[in-house]
Amino acid sequence: MWLSATGGKVVALAAVAFVVGISVPAQAQTLEQSLVAAYRNNPTLNSQRAATRATDEYVPIALSGYRPQIFGTAYAGAQWAETRVDPGSVTAGTGSLSVAKTYPTGVGITISQTIYNGLKTANSVRSAESQVRGQRELLRNTEQLVLLDAATAYMNVLQNAALVELQKQNLEALKEELRAARDRFSVGEITRTDVAQAEASVANAQSELALAESNLNTANAVFYQVIGLRPTKLSPGRPIDRLLPKSEKAAVESGITSHPAVKSAEYAVDAGVSNVKVAEAALSPTLTLNGAASSDYNSTLNIERQTSASATLNLTVPIYQGGGEYASIRQAKETLGQLRIEVDVNREQVRANAVQYWGSLEAAKAAIESAQASVAANEIALRGVREEWRVGQRTTLDVLNAQTALFNARASLVIAQRDRVVASYAVLSASGRLSATTLGLKVPIYNPQVHYDQVRDAWIGVRTPGGQ
């Protein structure tokens, strides 16, 4: 069995020998409920969801290259002109002066439609779509990390509260040994040295209890940070062996093929390939269709209105632009090379994690069996040493050492149980399959495709689908 909690104090279940009269509450906070709360409330996960929605907008931004650009213009003003004519240039022999005042106004509209730009727009769209897919994998990876952190925080509270309870039990047992030692000292059966040894053990146990309580407070704070709830009445945490790969090899293969960190890096390579083509488009000619229409009023004294319209095809052929475009192409190619290396880096990291966590899982299983045997043996040993101490065959130090050995065995069992559960979640994470869907959490699953579909083909509008 695993770890449970009642009233904020955590102890091992009945299968562990040190449980005395503590039962699991009927309405306990479960590990599944804590994972649901983390899935809903964790700020890191919600931040990554917002980043995913922002990344979705790269696609309509890129698609805008296929659409026309339309601008409207308008103007209004006053114009004053004074004309003086030289008398010598006038046949009549006298000069003249004329003043003209006009108030010109006008409106116009221009339209520009790109017809060909070296496939820059098409490759920009491909790059944006790859970025969206990569960001979704980053979101999935963040979900894995948050759920693993939540499971770890949950089990850490259980472990540290159980250790606090054990420390209290150990302290009470040592105090009882101290009282017995003092009684025997008072009748001359043992020496002052034996009493001092018992007093030292009690003082050390008090210090260890204070440290355990401090660790529990830290675990509670991390629990609230990750999950967003206060840990109260925690129920047993159990491993998820039924969801794990059948072997270490299967875990490694699953990780290097489907882990979100690897998939995100692969999509980054796809985006990098498209970005190289976008940079190369700067060397291609550009063909645009431009249209313009305008109406001008009172532009001169003699013209009341003038209307014009035009439509032109403009071909621009780059010959030399200072060399910046060549540098951009080289830079994009080097970036692509880096991204390809990152895929291998992530694969090797996933492989290492899968091997490490699988080993931790197997070690925790063995540690539980060893600790259970150690607890049973040390309980028998402690009872025997106490009986021998009563008849003078053992010293007080022997009893204290036996009590400490039993406490250490019980503490090791609690730690091994915690490690067993956390390692099972870590293995599932390393294989790339730790998610709310895989765990069967009873929570609405966030679907990034919904927002993407809402914004992909939007031509106008500044309000987000969320209403902002």
TrEMBL record:
GO terms for molecular function: efflux transmembrane transporter activity; porin activity. Keywords: Cell outer membrane, Coiled coil, Membrane, Signal, Transmembrane, Transmembrane beta strand, Transport. Its main location: membrane. GO terms for cellular component: cell outer membrane; efflux pump complex. SUPFAM superfamilies: Outer membrane efflux proteins (OEP). Residues 125-222 form a coiled coil. Residues 1-28 form the signal peptide. It is found in: Cell outer membrane. InterPro entries: OMP_efflux, T1SS_OMP_TolC, TolC-like. It comes from the Bacteria. Belongs to the outer membrane factor (OMF) (TC 1.B.17) family. PANTHER family: OUTER MEMBRANE EFFLUX PROTEIN, OUTER MEMBRANE PROTEIN TOLC. This is TolC family outer membrane protein.
